[in-house]
Amino acid sequence: MPRPDAALAGERRRVRPAVVTLLLLVAVLAVARTRPGASAVLWAQDFLEFFSGVFTLVALTAAVTAGVGAAQHRVPIRFRILFQAAHRAMAVLAVGFLVTHILLKIMEAHAGVLEAVVPFVGGAGRLYVGLGTIAGDLLVLALVTGVLRGRFVARSRPWLWRAVHATAYVMWPLAMIHGLSAGRAPKSWVTWSYVICFAVVMAAAASRLPRMARDRRMLGARAHARPQAATPRTRSEADVPDEKFWASLRAETGARSGDRR
């Protein structure tokens, strides 16, 4: 049972970020009421209205690439931990830019509230906007399943997590088509940045294919193998290809902890 002082310290650590965020919000609102602050807010709004969609795709590209890097078993554990942290941070950043992009488009009357959630409800000529809506919905779905990954594994349904999380590979090209075709005509540097993002994601996905094929063969071999004894076998995390990373990480951490004792 935790000591009262330790529990109080933990409660303070949880409350502190909320207090700091609230104070920063109050400060920003106060500055925005001044003339220079209002000008800065208008400049930031115009800047984000123009670039938030591009930033969303760039952050999404970084998230996909880092996620593929974290799944590479040939990469040392310490670097895979960094890739995993970058994958999660970039996914959250992409959602943040996505929310900013949607809110500003609604404020500018370029899209409706329902159209931001439900695709193809904006009438004729809104095909590419609808593709962006689908991409946004899939991005939020991928983020939520990433947060709830432990529950899928605990309930022996890692295959369901992998299937849902893999929608990121569908979401990404939809987002790129939306960015290049919806709204204003993109400038040349925007087009080239999208081409670079496309090349990076394709290279990352291609590096993942051999491992996915090997894992599929391993799972198929286990499914057709006959049990040698009637003794029930406890299912370990290493039986699931996607969980080998966490199993090896815990084993390495435990070994290091034992060496320090």
UniProtKB/TrEMBL annotation:
Where are the bilayer-spanning segments?
50-68, 89-107, 127-147, 159-177, 189-209
List every stretch annotated Disordered. 222-244
* Basic and acidic residues bias: start-end ranges: 234-244
Question: Which superkingdom is the protein from?
Answer: Bacteria
Keywords, A to Z?
Membrane, Transmembrane, Transmembrane helix
What is the protein name given in its UniProt record?
Answer: Ferric oxidoreductase domain-containing protein
